[in-house]
Amino acid sequence: MLDLKFVRENPEAVRRGAALKKQEADVDGLLALDAERRQITTRADELKQERNALSEEVGRRLRAKENADDLKQRVRNLGDEIKKLDERLAAIEPQMRDRLLRIPNLPHESVPVGESEADNRFVREWGAKPNFDFEPKPHWEIAEHLGIINFEQGAKVTGSGFIVYSGAGARLQRALINFMLDLHTTRHGYREVYPPFLVNVESMTGTGQYPKFVETDGAYKVEGDELYLIPTAEVPVTNLRRDEILGDPELPLYYAAYTPCFRREAGAAGRDTRGITRVHQFDKVELVKIVRPEDSYAELETLLQNAEAVLQALGLHYRVMEMCTAEMGFSNAKQYDIEVWAPGMGRYLEVSSCSNFTDYQARRAGIRFRREPKAKPEFVHTLNGSGLALPRTMIAILENGQQADGSVRLPEPLQAVFGRETL
RNA sequence: GGUGGGAUGGCCGAGCGGUUUAAGGCAGCGGUCUUGAAAACCGCCAGGGGCGCAAGUCCCUCGUGAGUUCGAAUCUCACUCCCACCGCCA
Prior knowledge:
- This protein has two domains: 4-101, Serine-tRNA synthetase, tRNA binding domain (Helix Hairpins), CATH 1.10.287.40; 117-418, 2-Layer Sandwich (BirA Bifunctional Protein, domain 2), CATH 3.30.930.10.
- 43% of the residues lie in helices and 20% in strands.
- The chain is an alpha+beta fold.
């Protein structure tokens, strides 16, 4: 969330930023409550000060065996008045928090202003689209031919949007996870963590999925417990340090985690129904950074490069796009997407999203640090990026590696795992 | 799932209705001493909020939420979490 003081002092900037992101922001409602809260707090504090002083006087008199009934009555009356004010505050504060939690992070000034996907800014590309001397097939046909993905079994066991990797498909999945984790931990300095796949509402709030993403039915909720299946490892991993005050020497923190991700994709029915472009459960290796505020935009660039390194090692052509204001996520200040080329589908697919959340998640999750042992705690900046999402990486491997005879040439780093060059 | 024990500041730990503005210790930071270090000694060491240009001042927080009381870390109730044992279990 945003700093309440910042909203109070810059209401117009908040309205503008939210509008650029095509998001609502009840700034007026929030500030009206804020004004009332401060007025009541001032009054209540004065009364409490008086009550504390009088109570102390009661104690003094009673110890001196004097009568204190008149004072007791005055304090009782004060108590009644204080209680009314505190009750009003108890009603206002959750409302303020709720409004604040629903105001999105503001886009960084460098973010291109735009209305749609068409306004995203091309940053760079790597490699080139491969040439085929035959018509490249979409991955679902390749996978069916090889018998490595079973859609019917996924639908039978769970339902539409759930798939089963089978045989070499399952093994390829596992090899990719290992490959990505090893790359990030041994070459890029990330600490591997393996977090829970279910999280509580505090964690969902900390990274910004609650309330809005949850309310729009994006997340799976566990019946009977107040727990959610994680939509991304960003949630458990960023929340690892929730409500902590870190020491300056601990920063920056780099975490890499493999987890499955669960998304209801409630609003996306009908899109990408064929293949594995959009499924309800998918695997992802996620990178999370917790850094000093002044470093976050430089850290975003290296995070992006760390994610790109995976595609480079796999020899897959991709492009990097900077999201325009309207295409960014709720909690982001700046976001790059990496899009890999899928020749069978004839389009680029988002395999990674790398974002700087500035202090927005840190403030929600209470992640702070001290520059010096006695310095005032400051909020850290958090970042995360996929490194990478598995299904679309698999799509790119299948569609880019396909050969005329129906086999698929494996990227070089995966050949050792399989002991051969093709699937 | 059952039974019992516990939750106090970075850590340990007093405290059981009013000089607690939370003792004391450890760790940390600053200083004295020392060639330097250690030891010893002195000092500083939670977070949030209101008002104020500031200096400052006041309020809140002893797991969370209610309650009793003039006054609650301290008493009552509920809940949460942690630990131990039992049951079940990969």
